[in-house]
Amino acid sequence: MKEYRGIFPALVTPFDEKGRVDADRMQRLVEKNLRQGVAGFYVGGSTAESYLLSMDERKYALEAVMEAVQGTEASVIANVGVFATEHGLALADHARRAGVSAISSVPPFYFPFCMEEYIHYYNTLAERAQMPVILYNIPAMSGVTFKKEDIQRLFENENIIGMKHTSYDLFQLQQLIQEYPEKNIFIGHDEILLCAFSVGAEAAIGSTFNFMAEKFVRLAKLMNEGKQREALKLQDQANRVIQVLCEVGVFKGVKAALKFQGYDCGLCREPFLPLSKREERRLYETLLENDCL
Ligand code: NAY
């Protein structure tokens, strides 16, 4: 059954001055986004720098989010993707006990597994985690491309309730939405949210929602009301900012933008390096020009 609609920030992981996961900063960030009307959160994804965190840090960050959403209607989806199935299952077990509404997983990466192995992985997760599972399609980073027939096999499993489509392939997105009306298909590229909603998407997970949630909540509402021209103005503003983020590094740029808004989440963990002064200035000016400050 389709149950996810609206804007889901893929939360950053805030760090304190010593580089430790900072639960207070995480909770402030969650509260800011809730005030702006988001439907829920995606925790532990790429934006969260998850593959630069230890298992304990991933669990701690999720617990901070669960505490902040307590008493609200926000749904939390936790990415449990990691290299080994057993470790993914351990994160899934923790996420279930923490009270998330679904888990998600990037396909196990680095080693070139075959599609049979990916399918076995997702079915194992769906059966053993006792949680709804959302596939994470991100070919540019995982190197894994799910073809139509692969998705069909995966979607036969009722516990696999949807997919986060972090791909520019709108042809595949449109077909998925038509063919699987009961599945939750999230667009995972913020810069094409308008295009995705125009082919029927109703939910989005994105890193730039951390600091542009208000813009995207309005954009989604306008699209739902059929006001595409007005929505396009917002998408255009957002895309001018996203263009700069893509040039300076998206996750570092998201954290820099949050800092400009008064939500200091620290720097991205090394090997990421901080933005240069020139990059910071360029980002600041673009945020200012596009109503983000
Ligand atoms: C994640 O796991 O945090 C995400 O995939 C969030 C989605 C983002 N995708 C990537 C690859 O970073 O929000 C998008 C993306 O940053 C944005 O569209 C700019 O390309």
UniProtKB/TrEMBL annotation:
Organism superkingdom: Bacteria
GO CC field: cytosol
Catalytic residues (UniProt): Y136 (proton donor/acceptor), K164 (schiff-base intermediate with substrate)
Binding site for pyruvate: T47, I205
UniProt-recorded name of the protein: N-acetylneuraminate lyase
Biological process terms in GO annotation: N-acetylneuraminate catabolic process
Originating species: Blautia hydrogenotrophica (strain DSM 10507 / JCM 14656 / S5a33) (Ruminococcus hydrogenotrophicus)
InterPro entries attached to this UniProt entry: Aldolase_TIM, DapA-like, Schiff_base-form_aldolases_AS
Annotated SUPFAM superfamilies: Aldolase
PROSITE patterns assigned to the protein according to its UniProt record, in alphabetical order: DHDPS_2 (PS00666)
